[in-house]
Amino acid sequence: MTTASDPSYPAHWEADVVLRDGGTARIRPITTEDAGRLVSFYDQISDESKYYRFFAPHPRLSDRDVHRFTHHDYVDRVGLAATIGGEFIGTVRYDRIGPDGRPASAPADEAEVAFLVQDAHQGRGVASVLLEHIGAVARERGIRRFAAEVLPANTKMIKVFTDVGYQQKRSFEDGSVHLTLDLEPTAESLAVQRAREQRAEARSVQRLLAPGSVAVLGVSRSGSGVGSAVLRNLRDGGFHGHLYAVNEARAPGMEGDLLDGVRAYRTVSDINAPVDLAVIAVPAERVPDAVAACGEHGVQGLVVLSAGYGESGPGGLARQRELVRQVRSYGMRLIGPNAFGVINTAPAVELNASLAPAPATARGRIGLFTQSGAIGIALLSGLLRRGEGLSSFVSAGNRADVSGNDILQYWYDDEATDVALMYLETLGNPRKFTRLARRTAAVKPVVVARGGRHTPAGHLVPGTRLPDTTVSDLLRQAGVIRVDTVTELVDVGLLLAGQPLPAGPRVAILGNSESLGVLTYDACLTEGLRPLPPLDLTTAASPADFRAALSAALASDDCDSVVVNAIPWVSERELADDLAEALRQAAAEVPGKPVAVVHVELVELVAALSAVRAAPPAPPAPPGPVEPDPTTAPAPAAPAPARGQAPAPSAAPAEAPRRIPAYPAAERAVKAVAEAVRYAEWRRANAEAGQVPEYEDIDESGAAARLATLLDGVPEGTVLTLDEADARDLLGRYGIPVRPVLPAPSPDAAVRAARILGYPVALKTTAPHLRHRADLGGVRLDLTTEAELHRSYEELTEALGKPGELLPVVQAMAPRGVDTVVRAVVDPAAGTVLSFGLAGVASELLGDTAHGLVPATDRDVAALIRSIRTAPLLFGWRGSDPVDTPALEELLLRLSRLVDDHPEVTAVALEPVVVATEGLSVLSATVRVAHPPARTDLGPRTLPSY
Predict the structure, then answer these.
(1) Helix orientation angle between 885-901 and 700-711, rounded to the nearest 10 degrees
(2) How many CA atoms lie within 13 A of 765 on its CB side?
(3) Calpha distance 342→430 (Å, rounded)
(4) Residue 420 forms beta bridges with which residues?
(5) What's the pTM?
(6) Minimal CA–CA distance to 834: which of 771, 730, 909?
(7) 914 and 920 Cβ atoms separated by less than 8 Å
(8) 565 or 805, greater pLDDT
(9) Where are the alpha helices (DSSP H) in 174-313?
(10) pLDDT, tens digit (0-9, with 9 covering 90-100), for 832-856
């Protein structure tokens, strides 16, 4: 007998998932307590589906059937159920079988698998996600293959098996299709899984942002309060669907009366029509009842504005966990709690379910996501003030469910969004975020500003132990434009939304102020750009002069972008419009290069430049009814954008001049241009994917066997530091030789070691407090005779301590070169991080280390080496000989392969690695290993559980 409270119950198999249509379900093991649920579920299955499952008429389950399908040992017999509201909507089970097809136990590694999905839920991807989860369970229990018998007419189930991406065999035997699936994940199965994940999560966000009907819960009769404010914003913003107000204080019999011009009801259940989205603005203690009412009514998603959750302390955290559990149990998704709201400016929707007053913002090409409501207000205000509009806006508050990852999935192929702006306080799941950001950045810019970089954030999400500089490097590797402030977020977003990407770093500077031109020139150098000498048009320049100069600069092959400087004339208002028009005409005549304007107290010019939109707004559709007949079904939600391959960033229509962004300081304009240059370079460099080279001398199986031996008997959670011999052996299996060292506990022992290794040698201490500290005098190099070795040994011991304290060793000298440090370390949230820098105190003090994610490609490691500030020392600085960077790149690739192939390797430090003009030498290596944790990113699709 196994119940959910039984210690043998595998609770870690429980998971919340997003289905194909954007709804959610919970997957969990079936227990003996599920007999009633199983019978009820089976009674709702059609006769045809029952026939497909049992190959014969099977109208009802016998007591024996119920016992068999609810009693499992969770090893050889496993059953999983997909549930909504606690009720089964689909089941899957496997039974381990032997070569003869009869029930068996381990070590048999094949199992027979079968599904059954309720007819009302077929087509939602239930069977596909159940197959992912039962496959993961089977692998955990030592099962490597699934066998399935399917009737030829059951084409839907055959498609579930054939589309999963596993290696499989198919045959026709005795009137049925026999399928055998190899459960080892493949590149194809992972691609299929992630494509399904993207479609499902994007659809779940689309349902929240494009509802056909909205109910606001917590609307007061007086018109005050958060709920009433949101209701007015929805009404005044021209929402095209049906709108309902819910006020529990209304007297019975008053249902359907108007409240603030909107038909009002006491409860959601009183609304005699479907509700797609509910905005909840009631006190936290009343939220559970509101959620239950919405779930029972079939609401698809919630925006919870109520506070008093994770931001308020331990009690609020517990309340937040329960809120997520309750929301998902009804198959809904949640934005919030403590959210500011959502906006969708699509012409067919016009949704402003937020606290931003209507009209919140104009229609534009920027998508905006924030965790903070206050930051959201600031960003909306900043964009609106500078004439920019939005495609969509989500302020997720505590983001207990819907997060930035979900929004990225939606924006990836949202044709209305060209630029994604995100303010994040935590990354939550950095491994997934960088994966999604890299894919999205390949087709449209992703700009991120991070708050809470140096203090713990208050949201209930897992963080990362990685330093902020490391996280920044990982984001840039993924193509994310990382900025430091919300001001920079707006500055960069304005340029990317209104201007084309630059083809290179050359910047032309022109304007009517010589001093402002010099400041712009200096700012370009600071940002690593290549500015041309500024062109001073003098203070007497007219708009026509500006137009001619800008046209000439844009037509020149010598520049890739242009910064225009402007200072006031005597008659500012009159000339501002003329100057704006002149600049727009020049940019339209010679398109293809970005233009940014730096102004000094020319507020009128900012307004004039932003007057032309990147795309003219579509004529407004007639507003949807706010007082619908309760017997009339609401208008359907706007159709989802076409899913599939993401489009390239949309360009403005040819007949619509581009908006030219204006900045009040040269540094801000140049910073925006520089970020666009770096992003464009990343796009070009990643147009073709890098390669992970195959090295024939890598002994992957031998390394795996060696690691298994080393970890035999090591407790879970314990990290083992390998001794010098074991570390050299493991690294050697991946073609990473480490120069041997011999202990030198006495002068005579040092001499014997030198004779074995051959002169010249190095004498160095290995005591932890002196390791890699050449500045303390613990290293003697280029010792060519016994006399020098004796003398150096005496100097070391006299200056630093006894041999037993210093632990001296002798090592053969390596060819001279540049000392570097190569490391790899596993972060639980971000994954394995590869790091590179030059050795020495100066690099450590300045933090001059570059980081990248594993597995690294040839392009990744080449960029990694060149990204540190001291990289010129590798390429012939001041006449020195360039070192063998191809050998260094190969070392990084081999180390990346090692830690990627073997998750047992938790940390590797190669320090120093001396890179000579030909070849390199690894002088010291530290390797730490442990039993690996489960890789959630390679498992079945799940929603985070906090």
Answers:
(1) 50
(2) 27
(3) 24
(4) 367, 446
(5) 0.84
(6) 909
(7) yes
(8) 565
(9) 187-209, 226-236, 287-297
(10) 899 999 998 778 888 899 999 888 9
Q: Which of 445, 407, 443, 389 is nearest to 618 (CA)?
A: 389
- Cα(844)–Cα(841) distance, rounded to whole angstroms? 5
Instruction: Reply yes or no on whether the pLDDT at 473 is more than 80.
Output: yes
**Residues in contact with 103: Cβ distance below 8 Å, sequence separation at least 6, in sequence order:** 76, 95, 96, 97
| Confidence band, pLDDT 50/70/90 cuts, at residue 617 | very low
Q: Distance between CA atoms of 521 and 877, rounded to whole angstroms?
A: 26
The answer to whether 361 touches 344, Cβ cutoff 8 Å, is no
> 770 vs 751, 801, 896, CA distance in Å?
22, 11, 28
Q: Are 827 and 851 in contact (CB under 8 A)?
A: no
Selection from 285, 544, 429, 599 nearest residue 946 by Cα: 429
| Residue 411 contacts residue 367 (beta carbons within 8 Å) | yes
Region 678-683: mean pLDDT is: 95
CB 590, CB 658: distance < 8 Å? no
Paired residues of 853 in beta bridges: 833
Position 641 pLDDT exceeds 50 = no
Helix (H) or strand (E) holding 663: strand 662-663
331: phi then psi, degrees, rounded to nearest 5: 80, 20
Instruction: Give the Cβ contact number of residue 229 at 10 Å.
Output: 21
Q: Is the pLDDT of residue 611 over 50?
A: yes
Mean pLDDT of 182-199: 90
Kind of pairing between the strands at 77-84 and 87-97: antiparallel
> How many other β-carbons are positioned within 10 Å of the β-carbon of residue 735?
18
**Dihedral Cα 807, 811, 817, 819, nearest 10 deg:** -30
Containing 79, the helix (H) or strand (E) segment is strand 77-84
Q: What phi and psi values does residue 134 have, to the nearest 5 degrees?
A: -70, -30
DSSP string, 314-383: HHHHHHHHHHHHHHHHTT-EEE-SS--EEEE--TTT-EEEESSPSS---EEEEEEEES-HHHHHHHHHHH
Instruction: Count how many Cα atoms sit within 13 Å of the Cα of residue 291 in the half-sphere of its side chain.
Output: 29
The residues, ordered by sequence, that sit 6+ positions from 155 with a Cβ below 8 Å of its Cβ are none
Are 561 and 595 in contact by the 8 Å Cβ rule? The answer is: yes
Side chain identity, residue 467 = P
- Closest alpha carbon to 287 in 331, 339, 236, 239: 339
Question: How confident is the model over 714-764, as pLDDT tens digits?
Answer: 998 899 999 989 999 999 999 999 999 999 999 999 999 999 999 999 998
Q: Euclidean distance between the first and final Cα of the chain, in Å?
A: 29
Q: How many other β-carbons are positioned within 10 Å of the β-carbon of residue 721?
A: 11
What burial class does residue 290 get, using C-beta atoms within 10 Å of its C-beta: 0-12 exposed, 13-18 middle, 19+ buried? buried
CB 705: neighbour CB atoms within 10 A? 12
Coil, strand or helix at 327: helix
Within 13 Å, how many C-alpha atoms sit on residue 299's CB side?
A: 31
Dihedral sign (CA 738, 739, 740, 743): negative
CA distance 196 to 160: 12
**Secondary structure (3-state) at 197:** helix
Q: Which helix (H) or strand (E) holds 746?
A: none
Cα separation, 791 vs 783, whole angstroms: 10
| 650 pLDDT higher than 60 | no
Q: Count of H helices and E strands in the chain?
A: 27, 39
Q: Which residues pair with 928 in a beta bridge?
A: 721, 907
CA distance 152 to 492: 56
A 10 A CB-CB count for 914 gives: 20
**The pLDDT of residue 793:** 92
Helices (H), 211-359: 226-236, 287-297, 314-329
Instruction: Report d(CA 479, CA 437) in Å as an integer.
Output: 7
Q: Which residue type sits at 919?
A: G
- Please state the φ and ψ torsions of residue 607, each to the nearest 5 degrees: -65, -40
Helix/strand/coil for 153: coil
